[in-house]
Structures are given as C-alpha cells and as structure tokens.
Request: fold
Amino acid sequence: MINREDLLAGTRPEVGSRILVTEKETFEGYQVMDYKGVVWGISMRAKDFVQDTMMGCKNVTGGELTSYTELSDEVRQRAWDRMVSSARRIGANAIINFRFEITPVMYGTGGTAEVIAYGNAVVIEPIRNYVPMGGLGNILAEFVDHYCGGEGINDATPSKKRVKESPKAEITKVGDITYAVCPECKLKFKVTKDENGKTRVMGLADVDLDEDGLQIYCSRCGVKFTIPELE
Reply:
C-alpha cells in the first residue's frame, strides 16, 4: 500500500550554526522550540558634507544618488549583522517577525539616518516527517490520487483505502472572529462560511479528500486535524 502521508513526508535539514531570518511567524517545516526574546541591531550614519553637496548636483543633472545608495546599503547591513550577532549570543538559531525601521534624525542643517533591524529570537527544529502545505503538497497529493488511486500497486486485486480519522479542532471566538484551534500546538486558524454555507479556513484548502469533513495541516507543528462544521 502507498501511504499518502509517507509520500508527502520530508524532514527539513538541521539549522546548524546558521541564523535563519524571516518576516513571518514561523519557517515552513520547522517548529519553534523556545523563545529567547526580542533582538535588535542599530546603526546610525551621518551624511558626508562633501558627498551631500555633490549629490545635490544630481537634482539638476539627474541620475542615481550613488553615495546615498551605498550609505543606505551599508547602514542596513550593519544593523542586520548586529541583530544576528545578538541572536547568536543568547543561543537562538532563528529570528522571526523580522522588520527594518528607518528614522531620519535632523540636527541643524545636516542630518543622520537611524536604522533598526529587529525581530523575535527563537530556537527552531525540523518537524520530523513534515508534510508540505500549499502548492507542493497539493501537487504531490493529486499525483498519488490520480496515478495510484490509493490502492496497492503490487496487489493483484484493488484494496480499499485506509483512512485515519484526524483529531478535531476546538472552535473558539475572539470578538466577531471565529477560530479553529490546533489540537496539538494551539495555533489559531480563522474560519468562515462560504456562499454555500460550507466551513472554510482562510487561505487553506482541504488536504485529505478521502476523509469526511475539512482537514488541514498545522503550519506550526505539522499535525493534520479536522475543522468542525460551523453552526
């Protein structure tokens, strides 16, 4: 028998000595094991008077302000490096919710630019036998359904598909918004009803058409669970 989940499974590589950075809340295929706190890196650079004068001529002749471009790139890179170094010092191997914040600070007739790179430092580990979501997961799932039909390839006679019943999510409301709560890691997913009255999860499709109801994979822990029908 070909197990659909076994075909889709794939453990991501270990992070190692790297510091992974994302503007999202998690990395696909990884789970957050520990939160180390907010880390940041700050860099502030002042304008060079001579370069400022030369760049002012560009307002007449036109063209890229190369000195400003290089300065902007350098100040961002320094802020980034300091943020990453800060995360490494406290034992993190990843940064989530990453952001850049740029603030001009004026002093007299001159000025400086303050750049802050910040995010949440965390420790992540690969999810064992992770099942991909989105386009890749759908393509692999369709391949199995179309070419294998969920039946044993080497069997002389077709066998009935074996369907495991997924755990059900808890439905909760926060204000006017309804959420389905992952039974494993408690991550919340926004749920609504479509024009036909069917329960749907915002941005996600049913990942198991063989099982009754709507099933999704948790983007944090990778557990497949069923979304109960909304009343």
Summary: The radius of gyration is 25 Å. Residues 150-161 have pLDDT under 50 and may be disordered.
